[in-house]
Design a protein that fits this description.
Chain B: This is SUMO1 activating enzyme subunit 1. Chain B: It comes from Amphiprion ocellaris (Clown anemonefish). Chain B: InterPro entries: ThiF/MoeB/HesA, ThiF_NAD_FAD-bd, Ubiquitin-activating_enz. Chain B: GO terms for molecular function: SUMO activating enzyme activity. The complex is a heterodimer. Chain A has 18 helices and 18 strands. By secondary structure, chain A is α/β, with parallel strands linked by helices. In chain A, helix 12 (310-331) crosses helix 13 (344-360) and helix 13 packs across helix 14. The radius of gyration of chain A is 27 Å and the shape is globular. Chain B is of the alpha/beta class. Chain B contains 14 helices and ten strands. Chain B is globular, with a radius of gyration of 24 Å. Classes of the chains: A alpha/beta, B alpha/beta. Chains A and B meet through strand 1, helix 2, helix 15, strand 9 and strand 10 of A and helix 1, helix 2, helix 3, helix 4 and helix 14 of B.
Chain lengths: 602, 421
C-alpha cells in the first residue's frame, strides 16, 4: 500500500530529510531553488556564491531585500530560506566554487549537486568535480523567457562538455580598428580604449588604425610594406596609448582630436577601404563647440534612455575622462582601473566614446541604457522563468533520489508552445560522447598552433584555462624525460612563461600531458604545428568547426537527424520537419540547432 | 493614490528603473509602465497562490489584493513560504501580508480575509475603473495628484459605503469627510464616459471550486475583467485564462530590411547602415471563451472524437479533480488516502462515462500522484501563470490560449485550446 507524506511516497520523503545537497549559486535560479528545496522537505542544504547583492537583483532574487544590498548572497539566502523551515540545516559559503578547498572529498559529501550558475568556467569546473566524485549533477540555465534543465551522471549521460559549445563571439581586429559597421564594434573599441588609457594594456586590444589591414592593400606586397612602414611611424605604433595620454596629462580635448579626428583622417588615406563603404567623417572639437545647441531642452523620462546629441557626448567624454583621470591618480603610481559596467564614470566613458565613433561611421547613436546592455553583456532576467526552471530542477532531483535515473530528462522551456503544443519539452538524455575531451576514459585532443609563436603562458592561459577549462594546470612534455613545462605551484615555472613552445623542442607531433589535480583531470594534447592560421587566431582545436556564421538550415544531414533522432519522449514524430519548434530561432530544431540557440543559457 | 496623468508621461522613477532594470531590458519600458498601472485580485493564497503573488509583486504591479478565508494550518508552512511558522490559527491572507509586502515595497499589497463566495457581484467591479482608475485615458485635466483630489472623485461617485476598510490603501487613510463631495459634473462624465475596457485589472483564482470559478468568470467577462484560474494537485497542475472576446496585444518582430533596388558601387549610393537588430511592434488580436464553455466541450461529435488523439488527457484529469472537489468540498487528502483513492477511481469512471468516452482514456496511474500541493509543481505552474498575467496586463506577446497543463512526472508542459471554435 502506497504511503504518502504530503505528495510524496514515504520512502522518498524520508530520504529527503537525511540526504545532503549542494546548491552552487544563490542568484536568480539559486533563490528559487533554495525555497523549493526547503518547502519540499530537504533538510541538509549547502549553498555557495562568491557574489554580493546588487539592487538590480531585486526584481527576481526574492530572498533579498533592499536593506541587504552589498551583503553576501549565500549568507542572506540562507537566512531567508531558514524562515520557511527553521529546523532545516543550511550552510552558506561566501566563496568561489573553484577554490581548491572544495575538492573531490568535499563534493563526495553530497548525494546531489545542483548548479545555479551564470558562467561557463564555473560550470566546466563543477562538471569535472562531479565526474571525479561520481555524484549526479543537475545543470540549468535561463535567459529572458527561455530556460533549460538537464541531468549529468558519469557513465550514463553526456557530461557538460561532451558537446562543444559555441565560444564567445569575437570580432576581427581590423573591424574594430578600421571598419566598424555595427554599434557593437564601436562599443568593443570603446572598451579597448578604456583599457589602453586607464586599465591593463593588452596587445590584442589596439585602438589605433590598423595599417596592416589586408583589405587596405591594393596588392599583397603592399600589406607587408605598410606593416614595416608603420613600425617606423612612431606616433601610431611605438609610443603606447597610455604613455601618450599621460604625456598630455589626459587632456580630454587633445585625446578627442587624436581619436576622433586625426586617427579618422589617417583611416581616410587608406582609400581602398572606402571604395565600397561609406567613409567615416572626422570630428573637430572646436567646430562642435562653436556649433553647439544654445538651448538645452529639459529632458523628460529616464536619463539613461535618452540619446544625446553629438555635443552631449563630447561633454560626457570630457567629464568621464576627467573623473577617471582623478580615480587613477588617487590609486597611485603605476595603478590600473578595471572596467565595470556599474561604475558610472567607466560606463559614461564607454557610452561617450562608442557613440562618438558611431556618429563618425554614420550609425545611429544609442542611449546609455542600450550601450550598457551590449558593453556589459547584460542578459535580461525575470522571476517567472527562474521559478519554472528551479521547480524543474527539484523534480529531476526527486527522480534521482528515488533511484529513477532513467526517467530523468533534459527539459526546455520555450517562450511559445511548439508545433506539438508543448511549452515545456522533455527530451531523453544522451549517453556520453566517446570522444569527449573531459569524460572519455583517456581524453585526448589535437591542437593546431605555431610552436614558434605560441608562448608557454599562452598555452596555460588561453588554451588550458580558457579553452579547456582547467583551473590550475600542470603540464609535462611526453619526451621520455617528462620535462615539466608548467607547474601549478606558483613561481616554479614562471621563467618559462615568455618562452616559445618550440624552445623546448616541441614540434609537430609532440604530445603534452596536462593535468588539473583538483579536477582529477588529465588531458593529452597532440601538437599539430602550422604556420597558416587565420588572422587573429592563435590556435585551433582540430575536429571542431570554427565559430562562424550559423549552419545552413536545410542541409541533408540535419533533415535526417530530425526524422531519425527525435529525442522527444512522447509519440513518434509525425512530421518531416523539426519537431522541436525553437521559438528562439523560429526554425524546426535539430539538437545542434537547439544547442546553438540555447547556448546563451550556457 | 491615483495617478491622473497622460499615458505618455513617464511614470517610472529612477528607483524603479534601477530595480526593474533586468526586466525592462526584456519587455520594454512601455510594458513596465502598464504593469505599474494595474491592479490584481488574487483569490487563494495556498502554494500556488503564494507563487503567483510573489511573481506579480516582483514584476511591479500597482496593487495586489490577497483574498483568502482559510486559516493557517500545520501543513500551511510546508506548502507556502509567505506564512511564518508561528502564524497557526491566523487568517492565511493576513498572515501572508508582511512577507508579501516586503518582496517589493513599491507595490500596494492588501489582505482580505473574506470568502470569495460571500462577495457580492459588485465586489469584483471594485477592481475596475469606477474609483481606482489605474489607467484611464482622459484629456489632461488640471488635476493635482494629491490625496484630496482622489477623495473628491470618490465623493462625486457616491459609492463610498461600498468600500470596506481593506480596500483603502493602508498608508493613505482619508482625512476629509468626503461624503458631501464637491460635484464636478464635467469630470464625472469624463470618467464615466470612458470605456471601462481601458482599465487594467485582473482577477486570479487559485484553489477554487468549479462553480465558483465559473460564476466569477462569467461576471468578470461582462465587465471586461480578465480572469485566470489555476490549481495544483500533487504532480499535476493547470492554468486557464479568459482574456475576453477581444484581447489586443503587440508582438515584437524583427524589422525586414529590404536591400536597395539598384546596386551601384559608387560611394554616394551607400546609405548609412541600419542596425540589423532593429525590431518593430505588430498589433494583434485574439479571442477567448468562458470557463463554462471550455469545460462543457461536447465530445460526442465526430470532429471532437477525431481530435481526441491529440488531446492532452490532463483535460479529463482536471474534470475528475474538479468533481472530487465539488462532491467532497475539499481536495484529495493524504490522511484519507485509501478512501480518496477509491473515490477518485470512481469519479474517473463517472466523468468519462458522462462525456461518452472510454474509461481507459485515463488510467489508474494518476491516482496516487495527485495528493496535496507540491512545492516545485506550484513553482512551475505559478511561474507560467504569473507570466501570463504579466503578459495580459502589459498587452505584450501572444497569450497562451486557453489552458496550460503541467505533468511533473513526465516533464510535459502543454498549451491547448478547449471551447467553441
Amino acid at each position: 500500500m502506497v504511503q504518502l507524506v504530503g505528495s510524496l511516497r514515504r520512502e522518498l520523503a524520508e530520504s529527503l530529510s537525511t540526504c545532503k545537497v549542494l546548491v552552487v549559486g544563490a542568484g536568480g535560479i539559486g533563490c528559487e531553488l533554495l525555497k523549493n528545496l526547503v518547502l519540499t522537505g530537504f533538510k541538509n542544504i549547502e549553498v555557495i556564491d562568491l557574489d554580493t547583492i546588487d539592487v538590480s537583483n531585486l526584481n527576481r532574487q526574492f530572498l533579498f531585500q533592499k536593506k541587504h544590498v552589498g551583503k553576501s548572497k549565500a549568507q542572506v539566502a540562507k537566512e531567508s530560506a531558514l524562515q520557511f523551515c527553521p529546523s532545516a540545516n543550511i550552510t552558506a559559503y561566501h566563496d568561489s566554487i573553484m577554490n581548491p578547498d572544495y575538492n573531490v572529498e568535499f563534493f563526495r559529501k553530497f548525494m546531489l549537486v545542483m548548479n545555479a550558475l551564470d558562467n561557463r568556467a564555473a560550470r566546466n569546473h563543477v562538471n569535472r568535480m562531479c565526474l571525479a566524485a561520481d555524484i549526479p549533477l543537475i545543470e540549468s540555465g535561463t535567459a529572458g523567457y527561455l530556460g533549460q534543465v538537464t541531468v549529468i551522471k558519469k557513465g550514463m549521460t553526456e557530461c557538460y562538455e561532451c558537446q562543444p559549445k559555441p565560444t564567445q563571439k569575437t570580432f576581427p581586429g581590423c573591424t574594430i580598428r578600421n571598419t566598424p559597421s555595427e554599434p557593437i564594434h564601436c562599443i568593443v573599441w570603446a572598451k579597448y580604449l578604456f583599457n589602453q588609457l586607464f586599465g591593463e594594456e593588452d596587445a590584442d586590444q589596439e585602438v589605433s588604425p590598423d595599417t596592416a589591414d589586408p583589405e587596405a592593400a591594393w596588392n599583397p606586397e603592399d600589406t607587408a610594406a605598410r606593416a614595416t612602414a608603420s613600425e617606423k611611424d612612431g606616433d601610431i605604433k611605438r609610443v603606447s596609448t597610455k604613455e601618450w595620454a599621460r604625456s598630455t596629462g589626459y587632456d580630454s580635448v587633445k585625446l578627442f582630436n587624436k581619436l576622433f579626428k586625426d586617427d579618422i583622417m589617417y583611416l581616410l588615406t587608406m582609400d581602398k577601404l572606402w571604395k565600397k563603404r561609406k567613409a567615416p567623417i572626422p570630428l573637430d572639437w572646436q567646430q562642435l563647440e562653436n556649433m553647439r545647441p544654445q538651448e538645452e531642452s529639459p529632458a523628460s523620462g529616464l536619463k539613461d534612455q535618452q540619446v544625446l546629441g553629438v555635443w552631449g557626448y563630447c561633454q560626457l567624454f570630457q567629464h568621464s575622462v576627467e573623473t577617471l583621470r582623478l580615480q587613477l591618480q588617487e590609486k597611485g603610481e603605476g595603478s590600473e582601473l578595471v572596467w565595470d559596467k556599474d561604475d558610472p564614470p567607466a560606463m559614461d566613458f564607454v557610452t561617450a566614446a562608442a557613440n562618438l565613433r558611431m556618429h563618425i561611421f554614420s550609425m545611429n547613436m544609442k542611449s546609455r541604457f542600450d550601450v550598457k546592455s551590449m558593453a556589459g553583456n547584460i542578459i535580461p532576467a525575470i522571476a517567472t522563468t527562474n521559478a519554472v526552471i528551479a521547480g524543474l530542477i527539484v523534480l529531476e532531483g526527486l527522480k534521482i533520489l528515488s533511484g529513477e535515473l532513467e526517467s530523468c530528462r533534459t527539459i526546455f522551456l520555450n517562450k511559445c508552445p511548439n508545433l506539438r503544443k508543448k511549452l515545456l519539452v522533455p527530451c531523453i538524455l544522451d549517453p556520453p560522447s566517446a570522444n569527449c575531451y573531459v569524460c572519455a576514459s583517456k581524453p585526448e585532443v589535437t591542437v593546431k598552433l605555431n610552436v614558434q609563436k605560441t608562448t608557454v603562458l599562452s598555452l596555460q592561459d588561453r588554451i588550458l584555462k580558457e579553452r579547456f577549462g582547467m583551473v590550475a594546470p600542470d603540464v609535462q612534455i611526453e619526451d621520455g624525460k617528462g620535462t615539466i613545462l608548467i607547474s601549478s605551484e606558483e613561481g616554479e615555472t614562471e621563467a618559462n612563461n615568455n618562452k616559445f613552445l618550440g624552445d623546448f623542442g616541441i614540434r609537430n607531433g609532440s604530445r603534452l600531458q596536462a593535468d588539473d589535480f583538483l579536477q582529477d583531470y588529465t588531458l593529452l594534447i597532440n601538437v599539430l604545428h602550422t604556420e597558416e592560421l587565420e588572422r587573429d587566431v592563435e590556435f585551433e582545436v582540430v575536429g571542431e568547426a570554427p565559430d562562424k556564421a550559423p549552419p545552413p538550415q536545410n542541409n541533408q544531414e540535419e533533415v535526417n537527424s530530425i526524422t531519425n533522432g527525435n529525442k522527444d519522449s512522447a509519440q513518434p514524430s509525425t512530421s518531416s520537419k523539426g519537431e522541436h519548434h525553437c521559438s528562439f530561432c523560429l526554425h524546426g530544431c535539430t539538437k545542434a540547432c537547439r544547442i546553438k540557440c540555447f547556448s546563451i543559457l550556457f | 493614490m491615483i495617478d491622473m496623468i497622460e499615458k505618455e508621461d513617464p511614470v517610472i522613477s529612477e528607483e524603479e528603473a534601477a530595480q526593474y532594470d533586468r526586466q525592462i531590458r526584456l519587455w520594454g519600458l512601455d510594458a513596465q509602465k502598464r504593469l505599474r498601472g494595474s491592479r490584481v485580485l488574487l483569490a487563494g493564497v495556498g502554494g500556488l497562490g503564494a507563487e503567483v503573488a510573489k511573481n506579480l509583486i516582483l514584476a511591479g504591479v500597482k496593487g495586489l489584493t490577497l483574498l483568502d478565508h482559510e486559516q493557517v494550518s500545520e501543513d500551511s508552512c510546508r506548502a507556502q513560504f509567505l506564512v511564518p511558522v508561528t502564524a497557526q490559527g491566523q487568517n492565511r491572507a493576513q498572515a501572508s501580508l508582511e512577507r508579501a509586502q516586503n518582496l517589493n515595497p513599491m507595490v500596494e499589497v492588501h489582505a482580505d480575509p473574506g470568502r470569495i463566495e460571500d462577495k457580492p457581484d459588485d465586489f469584483f467591479l471594485q477592481f475596475d475603473a469606477s474609483w481606482t482608475p489605474s489607467e484611464i485615458c482622459i484629456k489632461k485635466v488640471a488635476f493635482s495628484r494629491q490625496h484630496r483630489s482622489y477623495l473628491r472623485v470618490l465623493g462625486v461617485l457616491g459609492q463610498l459605503d461600498k468600500l470596506g476598510p481593506t480596500h483603502q490603501s493602508q498608508r493613505h487613510q482619508p482625512t476629509h469627510d468626503f461624503t458631501r463631495g464637491h460635484g464636478v459634473p464635467g469630470l464625472v462624465s469624463a470618467l464615466f464616459g470612458h470605456d471601462l475596457g481601458k482599465v487594467k485589472c485582473e482577477v486570479c483564482l487559485t484553489g477554487c471550486s468549479r462553480d465558483l470559478m465559473v460564476r466569477v468568470d462569467q461576471l468578470c467577462s461582462k465587465h471586461n475583467i480578465k480572469v485566470f484560474c489555476g490549481d495544483v494537485h500533487g504532480y499535476y497542475g493547470y492554468m486557464f485564462c479568459n482574456l475576453g472576446p477581444e484581447h489586443n496585444y503587440v508582438e515584437e518582430k524583427p524589422k525586414v530590411v529590404k536591400p536597395p533596388a539598384d546596386s551601384n558601387d559608387g560611394p554616394e549610393a551607400k546609405k548609412a547602415k541600419i542596425d540589423p537588430n532593429e525590431t518593430t511592434m505588430v498589433k494583434k488580436t485574439t479571442s477567448f471563451c468562458t470557463l463554462k464553455e471550455a469545460l462543457e466541450v461536447d465530445w460526442t461529435s465526430e470532429k471532437a472524437k477525431a481530435g481526441l488523439k491529440r488531446t492532452p488527457v490532463d483535460y479529463f484529469l482536471l474534470h475528475v479533480l474538479l468533481k472530487f472537489h465539488t462532491d467532497k468540498g475539499r481536495d484529495p487528502d493524504p490522511k484519507s488516502f485509501p478512501e480518496d483513492s477509491q473515490l477518485l477511481r470512481q469519479i474517473r469512471d463517472d466523468v468519462l462515462e458522462a462525456l461518452a468516452l472510454s474509461a481507459d482514456l485515463l488510467n489508474d496511474d494518476f491516482i496516487s500522484y495527485c495528493f496535496s500541493e507540491m512545492s516545485p509543481v506550484c513553482a512551475v505552474v505559478g511561474g507560467v501563470l504569473g507570466q501570463e498575467v504579466v503578459k495580459a496586463l502589459s498587452q505584450r506577446d501572444p497569450p497562451h490560449r486557453n489552458f496550460f497543463f503541467f505533468d511533473a512526472r513526465k516533464g510535459n508542459g502543454v498549451v491547448d485550446y478547449f471551447g467553441p471554435n
